[in-house]
Design goal:
With about 260 residues, the chain is of the alpha/beta class. It has a single domain, classed as Alpha-Beta Barrel (TIM Barrel). It is about 35% helix and about 20% strand. The strands form 2 sheets. An 8-stranded parallel beta sheet has the order 9-8-7-6-5-4-3-10. Helix 3 links the parallel strand 4 and strand 5. Helix 4 packs across helix 5. The chain starts with a strand and ends in a 10-residue tail after the last helix.
């Protein structure tokens, strides 16, 4: 029998050496629905990358596990995936200690000032913050990283193309601020969140791509070093075709979310 090895060790970008057909010496036990869905997602990611002439290893898949139990995250971890995302501070702080430390967590979206210490102190393996939408957030993160003695934290500036974030006309100034005034943060790129129905259009993605061009010119930064985080379950293939390097996929992998116990 032949199966795909879908490991993304240490949240590395897709690697051809980890995506290949393996001959199995013994039958494999039935896999959970999330793992099977994830395998399908990875195949679609590769196909979208091929259509756009992009190397599959240049695309990171963040499995967004908000409202999902630790047991379901563990299924994907045991299948080899290492990159997971959350939207609520209390949820990620509760989950992270119950899971292996080599998971690379992404926090996605708005962060209240009074939750900065809770997030950074409670999740030592937070790899990236996707959602710097003003200087205050950047400054608060920068100070707390220093106070806690953490390694510099990678951050993405959130641009308002459809929903929330900084106005596109101001993204250069905010990126400059992070780069020049926040020594404990690493400006790593731009991100956007889709409309309330979690879909975006080519125009939204084009806006973010244009912002990257402007930011990279202002910072004298190669575009390939500036990530674009755009695309979710409903539109990640289009996003990849339009230049996304980081897609955030939740319900397509984990199924519909349960908001009955919504956390902040």
């Amino acid at each position: 029998m032949h199966f795909l090895d879908i490991r993304c060790v240490s949240c590395s970008l897709l690697n051809h050496s980890h995506i290949h057909l393996l001959k199995m010496a013994a039958p494999v036990v039935a896999e959970g629905a999330a793992v099977l869905a994830f395998r399908s997602v990875m195949q679609r990611v590769r196909q979208a990358a091929d259509r756009s002439g992009t190397l599959p290893e240049s695309i990171r898949v963040v499995a967004v596990s908000k409202t999902k139990p630790v047991s379901m995250i563990r299924q994907l971890y045991d299948a080899g995936h290492r990159c997971f995302g959350e939207n609520y501070v209390q949820e990620i702080v509760d989950k992270a200690p119950q899971l292996p430390q080599d998971i690379e967590w992404h926090f996605i979206g708005h962060l209240q000032s009074n939750k900065v210490k809770t997030l950074l102190g409670g999740v030592p393996n937070l790899a990236m913050f996707e959602g710097v939408d003003n200087q205050k957030v950047a400054n608060n993160l920068d100070r707390m990283v220093s106070t806690l003695g953490r390694n510099p934290l990678k951050v993405l500036v959130q641009v308002n193309t459809t929903k929330s974030g900084i106005d596109p006309s101001n993204c250069v100034d905010l990126a400059k601020h992070v780069k020049s005034s926040c020594p404990n943060l690493v400006f790593s790129g731009l991100m956007t969140i889709g409309r309330p129905d979690y879909t975006s259009t080519p125009e939204n993605f084009k806006t973010l791509s244009n912002c990257r061009t402007e930011v990279c010119k202002a910072l004298e930064m190669p575009e390939e070093q500036c990530e674009l985080s755009m695309g979710m379950s409903s539109d990640f293939e289009l996003a990849i075709e339009m230049g996304s390097t980081n897609v955030r996929i939740g319900s397509t992998i984990f199924g519909p979310r349960d908001y009955s116990k919504k956390q902040e």
